[in-house]
Design brief:
The complex is a heterotrimer of chains A (433), B (293) and C (308). Helices cover 48% and strands 17% of the residues of chain A. With 433 residues, chain A is of the alpha/beta class. In chain A, strands 1, 2, 3, 4, 7, 15 and 16 form a seven-stranded mixed β-sheet that branches. A five-stranded mixed β-sheet of chain A has the order 12-11-13-8-14. Chain A has a two-stranded antiparallel sheet with strand order 5-6. In chain A, strand 9 (186-187) and strand 10 (193-195) form a beta hairpin. Mean pLDDT of chain A is 86; it is low at 12-24. With 293 residues, chain B is an all-alpha fold. Chain B has two domains: 2-35; 80-292, Orthogonal Bundle (MetI-like fold). Helix content of chain B is 77%, strand content 0%. In chain B, helix 2 crosses helix 15 (258-292) and helix 9 runs antiparallel to helix 12. Classes of the chains: A alpha/beta (433), B mainly alpha (293), C mainly alpha (308). Chains in contact: A-B, A-C, B-C.
Chain lengths: 433, 293, 308
């Protein structure tokens, strides 16, 4: 039996020699964990297969690992399993698609591997990436991942058909916002809101922080991100304003189970004038509105104390416990996926923004913008994007912030008391780290 | 009261019958209404899976689809490896149930009819296992299974659920009730230990064994907590956990796709509903036994 | 029995080897429980004394630091006490609702006819249908904007309720779901108990001129008290371990108002990567379950059968 197997292996190796595939090199398998679903996943899978075809000696196992947080749990399991595997089996993937917020924890605990040596060995020019975008994937000065797609959060999409019919212009500053809301909101005789002026993605800290920043709130007051800057007059102004609008039925603050789905649906049904969401859903929103015969408009968040939007999206990281050979190929795959050609495929399938200047200045990108002129309003601000804080405590703090704004804006609880409660909770988390 | 009865017996008789009749009528009425209430979510699941997305979103819900739309089912099968999920669920359920059955019957024999030192103390240990659910021990179990490299394997999925203390407990009660003379008769016929278990105890306790087996099958198909911990790849996910993934996948990207989610849900409940309806007799006798104790 | 006992003794004494063979039948089960129940519980306690986070391959023993965090730090204690309270509220809500309505349903459905048999089967069916599937249909019905329940409320000109999205209603919504699932089981248990009652009491009561309510209050209820106790104890212990329902319906939210204890342990281990702290909470949770079991066993003073 063993002899037969050896013979088979020998025949296979011989034949590969004859075909001339990568000399006598053993075929290597690398694993890619994807967190995108449906059409997005298919687009990404197509790209990975394309790379596989270009590199015949490498087989890529494309795995859908669930949502980003599910993928992280799996990674944790795989990491622990590999650490204690009796025969040196590797259960971790080679490349994981992940969000930047995981980088600090995973890097500090040796789950992911810095890319710097591969960047140097391949002589790759990192300056094509905008520095803010690289920073989101750094930990203690080392580059642990590359951004695969960038989203601008919150990106504002509004119903352009309504706007033109009713002569509504999307405001450029928060001072005009109240007047805008009153114009964009429609109520019936009983005073029930038929169409909200705006819907905010209140469930995600990444959507809320940039608005807070625009009001002048700093999440952290120091570079090391140990001192919370939330306790300030501006956050009270923000909370009071939002609560007032929500009470008047001018805005809807999407929060809780099914919030995201409902917000999207209500916009597509014409029950919301504009949504504050992510540019990644441009494709979905524009096609959804078009199905009802409406046109989509896009806008950058209004200016308050300053004009600002956050940097979202996801990137790719390399696992420390993958074999050196796997990592080497893994890096090549990452580099391929962040290249202009791939980047454009992702952009066109979703609405994400270019990750490199090369891509931004490319001809394909110019054509894409020509076909989707509304996106210019977002592309104009690409260098103003601010990355999320990278403190390991940020995820927990974020939950507290969104929870308490939910309490204030949706449930209408007392602003000062709730905020005070939130400051205490944040302080506790920071002290607990 | 008694006086009236004496004076007007026919009228009282009539009104009593009328009262009884109206009583029965209301009993039927309430029973039917309540049954409808309890079965409604399952009906809604089925009916929603046949609706179009537009119809699903109507503010005046329709209780019968205007047009039957069967697209959700092929869509679910095309978007997710449903056959794999179904196979995984099936395979895991059959394996855990048979292991629970074999090991359970043997242990139940040892603790009911067997005789060895420390029998009572060891049985207390088995009962004690009932008090330590997987919800308490999942972290070390998970690390142990990860250490053996069993994350995302069938063995990791099946083995930690291969023995049920509840199973052993129930079977032991039933075996104990079997009279010793039957066992002696078996021994006279030259049966060994296994022979007695297979040819005497099991046939005599058949209803109980069928009951626990059916419950084990249903629990296996529906089990969620451990399969969720130990599987991360679609290759080993069971239908029960895949359902969550399916629902969150749609919630992430698509709009309101509850018709498709419901189609997946319908697929996952068909086997248990059938099994339950086929074997309800055994499950229901199990109840009366539980209540008698 | 007494005539058989000496016979049995003689046979089992026949050979010492017999005892070993008897014992070996129990070996697979015993080994299993040693590996998958008792060893993990020891390990759990050991982890709770370390600072391990699952990602590192080394860890230190830190004594009772994790317990100190749990009981004395503001974050730990607040989360612990709130999740324990939520778990207890959920448990008490579900158990009392199923017991009360279980009796009422049992009285209603207590009729010997084929149509009632079919209806009883349908009422108990939800308990055996995959939880993942039925929670999904409840998610659909509970949906704030497009859900059936709110649509019906709106049609009746009543204000819509944000079932799973408000801290005031989320836990109740979860309990309603669990109630829907479990009340049929309670009904069946009560039905068997009621059927087992001797008719003599009722005939005697009828002669005394007792009406239906009185019969229920003074005869049925006291006689089925042991059943109630059995049901309450078993479903109490089962409900304390709730996880899946919460994960599927609310994900612990909103504002952690449905974050039950098992859900919190899971989140600590796999979201915050604090296996050490999660283990400490797990140990405390185990102690709570153990105390509850011993207490209820003392009260009931008889063997209770634990339906998982």
């Amino acid at each position: 039996m063993k002899k037969l197997l050896a013979l088979l292996v020998a025949i296979m190796m011989m034949s590969s020699l004859f075909v001339g595939l990568a000399a006598a090199e053993e075929p290597i398998t690398i694993t890619f964990w994807c967190s995108w679903e449906d059409a997005w996943r298919d687009a990404l899978k197509g790209l990975v297969e394309q790379w596989e075809a270009q590199n015949p000696g490498v087989h890529v196992e494309f795995v859908y690992a669930g949502s980003y947080s599910e993928s992280n749990q799996s990674l944790l399991a795989a990491h622990a399993a590999t650490l204690s595997a009796p025969n040196g089996e590797v259960y971790v993937p080679t490349v994981q698609q992940t969000v930047g917020t995981n980088i600090p924890t995973f890097a500090a605990n040796g789950v992911i591997y810095p890319l710097d040596e591969y960047i140097a060995a391949n002589g790759d020019d990192m300056s094509v990436f905008a520095s803010g975008m690289l920073k989101a994937y750094q930990y203690q000065g080392e580059q642990y991942g590359l951004p695969g797609c960038i989203s601008l959060v919150p990106s504002i999409f509004y119903n352009k058909t309504f706007a033109e019919q009713e002569g509504i212009e999307f405001p450029t500053s928060w001072d005009e916002f109240d007047a805008f809301l009153r114009k964009a909101t429609i109520k019936d005789e009983q005073g029930n809101t038929v169409r909200y002026g705006a819907s905010f993605s209140g469930w995600g800290i990444d959507y809320v922080t940039p608005i807070l920043r625009a009001f002048g709130v700093q999440p952290f007051t120091d570079e090391e991100e140990t001192q919370s800057g939330f306790d300030c007059p501006e956050i009270r102004e923000f909370a009071t304003k939002m609560q007032g609008w929500a009470k008047e039925g001018l805005i809807s603050w999407a929060f809780g189970s099914g919030a995201s789905t409902n917000m999207r649906q209500s916009f597509l049904d014409g029950k919301t004038f504009c949504v504050w969401h992510t540019c990644a859903l441009y494709d979905l929103y524009s096609k959804g509105l078009a199905a009802n015969g409406w046109e989509i408009g896009a806008a950058f968040p209004p200016t308050g104390a300053k004009q600002v939007a956050g940097l979202g999206g996801s990137g790719f990281t390399l696992m420390k416990l993958a074999s050196p050979e796997q990592r080497e190929w893994g890096y090549k795959l990452i580099r391929f996926l962040t290249d202009t050609a791939c980047n454009m495929v992702i952009i066109q399938n979703t609405g994400y923004l270019p990750v490199t200047k090369t891509c931004l200045e490319s001809e394909e990108c110019a054509e894409w913008l020509k076909a989707n002129p509304e996106l210019v309003h977002l592309y104009d601000h690409l260098d103003e994007l601010v990355a999320s804080p990278s403190s390991p405590a940020w995820a927990d703090i974020g939950t507290k912030v969104t929870d308490n704004f939910g309490r204030i804006i949706v449930e209408g609880e007392d602003v000062e008391a709730t905020l005070q409660f939130m400051f205490d909770e944040i302080q506790e988390i920071l002290e607990d780290m | 009261m008694a006086q009236t009865t004496m004076n007007n017996p026919p009228k009282e008789f009539n009104s009593a019958r009328l009262r009884k009749k109206t009583g029965v009528f209301f009993q039927y009425l309430f029973a039917i209404l309540l049954t409808a209430f309890f079965i409604f979510p399952l009906y809604w699941m089925l009916i929603s899976s046949f609706k179009t997305t537009e119809e699903l979103l109507l503010s005046k819900p329709t209780f019968w689809p205007k047009t039957f739309n069967f697209d959700s089912y092929p869509y679910i099968f095309n978007s997710f490896p449903m056959w794999r999920f179904i196979f995984n669920s099936f395979f895991m359920t059959v394996c855990t149930t048979s292991l629970q059955l074999i090991i359970g019957v043997m242990a139940a024999y040892a603790f009911s009819k067997g005789d060895f030192p420390g029998k009572d103390i060891l049985f207390v240990l088995i009962l004690g296992a009932l008090m330590i659910p997987i919800q308490v021990t999942f972290i070390p179990t998970y690390i142990m299974v990860a250490h053996w490299g069993w994350i995302n394997t069938y063995i990791g999925l099946i083995l930690p659920e291969a023995v049920s203390a509840y199973f052993i407990f129930m079977l032991r009660q039933n075996f104990k009730a079997v009279d010793e003379s039957y066992l002696d008769a078996g021994r006279v016929d030259g049966m060994g230990r296994i022979g007695i278990i297979v040819h005497v105890l099991v046939p005599m306790c058949k209803p109980a064994i069928v009951t626990v087996t059916v419950i084990a099958l249903i629990n296996g198909w529906n089990s969620y907590f451990w399969p969720k911990m130990v599987t991360t790849s679609n290759d080993y996910r069971t239908l029960s956990i895949a359902l969550r993934e399916i629902s969150s996948a749609f919630a992430g990207l698509e709009i309101m796709n509850f018709n498709k989610i419901m189609a997946a849900a319908v697929i996952s409940v068909i086997p248990v509903v059938f099994l339950f309806l086929l074997c309800q007799r055994y499950i229901l006798t199990g109840f009366s036994k539980a209540a008698m104790k | 029995m007494s005539t058989i006992a000496p016979k049995r003794k003689r046979i089992s004494r026949y050979h010492v080897r017999n005892k070993f063979y008897d014992f070996s039948c129990a070996i697979p089960a015993l080994v299993f429980f040693a590996i998958f129940v008792y060893y993990p519980i020891v390990e759990l306690f050991r982890y709770s004394l370390t600072d391990w986070n699952l990602m590192r391959d080394t860890y230190n023993y830190v004594g009772l630091k994790n317990y100190q965090w749990l009981f004395t730090s503001s974050v730990g204690w607040k989360r612990f006490s709130s999740s324990l309270t939520i778990t207890l509220l959920y448990t008490i809500g579900e158990v009392s609702a199923s017991c009360i309505f279980g009796i009422l349903l049992a009285l209603l459905f207590n009729r010997m006819s084929n149509s009632f048999k079919v209806m009883r089967t349908l009422v108990i069916l939800p308990r055996y249908v995959t939880v993942s599937a039925t929670t999904l249909v409840f998610l659909l019905m509970y949906n704030k904007e497009y859900g059936l329940i709110n649509n019906v409320l709106r049609a009746m000109n009543l204000p819509a309720v944000s079932w799973l999205n408000s801290q005031d209603t989320a836990l109740i919504s979860v309990i309603i779901y669990s109630f829907w699932r479990s009340v049929g089981y309670a009904m069946m248990i009560y039905l068997s108990a009621i059927k087992g009652l001797s008719q003599d009491y009722f005939e005697a009561a009828a002669l005394d001129g007792a009406n239906g309510v009185q019969k229920f209050r003074y005869i049925t209820l006291p006689l089925i008290a042991p059943t109630t106790l059995f049901l309450a104890v078993t479903s109490f212990l089962a409900a304390m371990k709730v996880y899946q329902t919460v994960e599927m319906l609310t994900g612990g939210g909103p504002y952690e108002s449905t974050s039950v204890i098992v859900y919190w342990i899971y989140a600590l281990a796999f979201r915050n990567y604090r296996v050490d702290r999660a283990s400490a909470v797990g140990c405390v949770f185990f102690m709570i379950l153990l105390i509850c079991t011993i207490l209820t066993m003392n009260i009931s003073d008889r063997k209770v059968n634990y339906d998982a």
